[in-house]
């Protein structure tokens, strides 16, 4: 599994980029996309939606199953990756790049440090 | 093929007998060709007979084929189908058991009854349906049953709508916003709750494969409208703490819903009503052997305890004082009508025939043999190199996993090359690479042994040649389907060739 150490991770398999001007990018990990299999549909949140950490705000559907995606941090949705509606395969092909899901303006940037680092996340994924 | 017989449109002539270029019936169409010609009235035009307003201005776009073309087309398609009449079909949670042919003969007696004929002339079929209502109530431990819902999920919706009506009548409609489902639930459970306007809260499965009781109790509060469970659950494990679950749910005023998809494990032996369930739906096309899948239609009767009976969908069949059976009068508390007339009557009659053929003792043996067969196959599958999720004595089904590095999807496709149907795969969601196996009581020991042998063989084949495994099946009318492409870029409708 590919787990970049510049990112932080949630137990529910989302990755979160380091905050820039209070904004983070969120996607699902390489491990998660591999477990899901070919992604065929993505339901993205409305821009402007305010979420608490742990709120379900997107759905990723694969040939095997449908999974809720949770907000790893509290904040407001400021942008979504609309290209996934036409090309959901980007999540499988480039989970950390073209397959990003949404951007959040987070309430508390310090909370990012509390998320799992790459090593801790890999340990979680292996026992999941 | 001679020059006088044109190739079906859209199909190359030389390929038209090949199995893998099977045309649609529309592609076999030839202008003016007919399968049947209705008799004409000499000297009278259709307009004079029927009235101008009843004639179409242009012909409908239907395939124009001869009767033999039609028969060959559908007979060949039927031969390409996999069915329980052809071979073993152990789809977990689907109860693909044999549908006895006797039931077809019984259903034949009722094929000419029409729902618009008067009650007095239809007492035979109405009596059968009223008896079925009573039989199903007895089998499930419920007080009243409606035969209306046309499938399992339809029965679920009826059940949850009744629960909602019950809470509303008690002035708790606003307060109760949540339905609890275990994480192993059939997908229809949360879908039903959501469709009925509820929020869904998921509770986890514990290490023993049963609902985690502590987490369940924590999720309970006065906002909970209903708890939806199946018992045995989707791991094929009996919820041994069901009485504690029932007591805790009722203590906060929630109603307990029984998903009857797995009733085959306990039919005649234990009753959901005695476990504390308030509502059940039954899949007659599973436990009660009415045709299933493409052979449907489904049938999903719903049963309730007395306090929910006022809300049953309308109309119910009632026994009159003179002994006749008729349709009840208006019942304003009912959640409404879910289906035209009295449900899928042809299949209700088949279920009645099944119950009456076996009797209570026979139904008990159904459950016992279904459980015995599943446990036998579980042990054989473990011996063949599979891992059993929650490896304990199971009920009518169990969940297995392939060894690390082997994909369930590949094994499922490889099974097709051996002429047997795969089990349910990738369900329940709580088990990785899940293989959910339900052999049912109608498979013999020899068939179970043969299936176990094939399971061992495909595992060895997949380990020896992973490339070939990924390309399976190799011998079926259609090969590995592009499931991803079908989901990402679905072709939803036939487009006739232009011109």
Would you mind describing this structure in some detail?
The complex is a heterodimer of chains A (128) and B (499). By secondary structure, chain A is of the alpha+beta class. Chain A has a single domain, classed as OB fold (Dihydrolipoamide Acetyltransferase, E2P), CATH 2.40.50.100. Chain A contains three helices and nine strands; from the N terminus they run βββαβββββαβα. In chain B, a hairpin with a 5-residue loop joins strand 8 and strand 9. The longest helix of chain B has 39 residues. Helices cover 34% and strands 10% of the residues of chain B. Chain B has 499 residues and is α/β, with parallel strands linked by helices. The N terminus of chain B is likely disordered. Chain B folds into three domains: 60 residues, no CATH class; 256 residues, Type I PLP-dependent aspartate aminotransferase-like (Major domain) (Aspartate Aminotransferase, domain 2); 128 residues, Aspartate Aminotransferase, domain 1 (Alpha-Beta Complex). Chain B contains 14 helices and 13 strands. Chain B starts with 45 loop residues before the first helix and ends in an 11-residue tail after the last helix. In chain B, the strands form three sheets. Chain B has a seven-stranded mixed beta sheet with strand order 1-7-6-5-4-2-3, sandwiched between helices. Chain B has a four-stranded antiparallel beta sheet with strand order 10-11-13-12, covered by helices on one side. Chain B has a two-stranded antiparallel sheet with strand order 8-9. Chains A and B meet through loops of A and helix 14 of B.
């Amino acid at each position: 599994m590919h787990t970049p150490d510049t990112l932080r991770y949630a137990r529910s398999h989302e990755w979160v980029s380091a905050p820039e001007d209070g904004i983070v990018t969120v996607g699902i990990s390489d491990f998660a996309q591999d477990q899901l299999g070919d992604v065929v549909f993505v339901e993205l949140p409305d821009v402007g939606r305010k979420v608490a950490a742990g709120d379900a705000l997107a759905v990723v559907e694969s040939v095997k199953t449908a999974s809720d995606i949770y907000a790893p941090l509290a904040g407001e949705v400021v942008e979504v990756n609309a290209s996934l509606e036409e090309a959901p395969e980007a999540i499988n092909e480039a989970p950390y790049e073209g397959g990003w899901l949404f951007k959040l303006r987070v309430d508390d940037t310090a909370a990012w440090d509390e998320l799992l680092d790459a090593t801790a996340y890999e340990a979680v994924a292996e026992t999941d | 093929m001679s020059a006088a017989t044109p190739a079906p449109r859209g199909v190359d002539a030389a390929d038209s007998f090949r199995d893998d270029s099977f045309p649609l019936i529309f592609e076999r169409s030839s202008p003016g060709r007919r399968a049947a010609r209705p008799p004409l009235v000499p000297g009278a035009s259709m307009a004079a007979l029927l009235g101008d307003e009843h004639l179409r201005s242009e012909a409908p776009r239907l395939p124009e084929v001869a009767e033999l073309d039609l028969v060959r087309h559908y007979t060949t398609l039927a031969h390409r189908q996999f069915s329980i009449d052809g071979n073993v079909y152990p789809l977990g949670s689907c109860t693909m058991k044999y549908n006895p042919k006797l039931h077809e003969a019984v259903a034949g007696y009722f094929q000419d009854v029409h729902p618009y004929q008067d009650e007095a002339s239809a007492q035979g079929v109405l009596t059968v349906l009223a008896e079925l209502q009573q039989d199903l109530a007895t089998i499930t431990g419920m007080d009243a049953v409606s035969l209306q819902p046309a499938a399992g999920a339809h029965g679920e919706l009826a059940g949850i709508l009744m629960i909602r009506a019950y809470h509303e009548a008690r002035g708790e409609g606003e307060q109760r916003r949540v339905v609890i489902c275990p994480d192993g639930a059939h997908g229809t459970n949360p879908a039903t709750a959501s469709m009925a306007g509820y929020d869904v809260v998921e509770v986890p499965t514990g290490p023993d494969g049963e609902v985690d009781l502590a987490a369940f109790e924590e999720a309970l509060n006065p906002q909970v409208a209903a708890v939806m469970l199946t018992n045995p659950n989707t791991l094929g494990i009996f919820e041994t703490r069901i009485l504690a679950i029932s007591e805790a749910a009722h203590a906060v005023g929630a109603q307990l819903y029984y998903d009857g998809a797995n009733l085959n494990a306990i039919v005649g032996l234990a009753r959901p009503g005695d476990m504390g369930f308030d509502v059940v739906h039954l899949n007659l096309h599973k436990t009660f052997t009415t045709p299933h899948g493409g052979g449907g239609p489904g049938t999903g009767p719903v049963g309730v305890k007395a306090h929910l009976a006022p809300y049953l969908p309308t109309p119910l069949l009632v026994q009159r004082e003179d002994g006749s059976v008729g349709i009840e009068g208006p019942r304003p508390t009912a959640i409404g009508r879910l289906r035209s007339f009295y449900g899928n009557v042809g299949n209700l009659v088949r279920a009645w025939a099944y119950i009456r053929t076996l009797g209570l003792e026979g139904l008990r043996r159904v459950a016992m043999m279904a459980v015995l067969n599943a446990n036998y196959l579980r042990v054989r599958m473990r011996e063949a190199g599979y891992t059993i999720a929650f490896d304990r004595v199971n009920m009518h089904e169990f969940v297995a996993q392939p060894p690390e590095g082997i994909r369930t999807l590949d094994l499922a496709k490889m099974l097709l090359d051996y002429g047997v149907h795969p089990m349910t795969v990738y369900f329940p969601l709580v088990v990785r690479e899940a293989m959910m196996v339900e052999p049912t009581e109608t498979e013999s020991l020899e068939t179970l042994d043969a299936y176990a042998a094939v399971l061992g063989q495909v595992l060895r084949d997949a380990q020896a040649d992973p490339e070939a495994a990924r390309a399976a099946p190799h011998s079926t009318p259609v090969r590995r389907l592009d499931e991803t492409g079908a989901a990402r870029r679905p072709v939803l409708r036939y487009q006739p060739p232009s011109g």
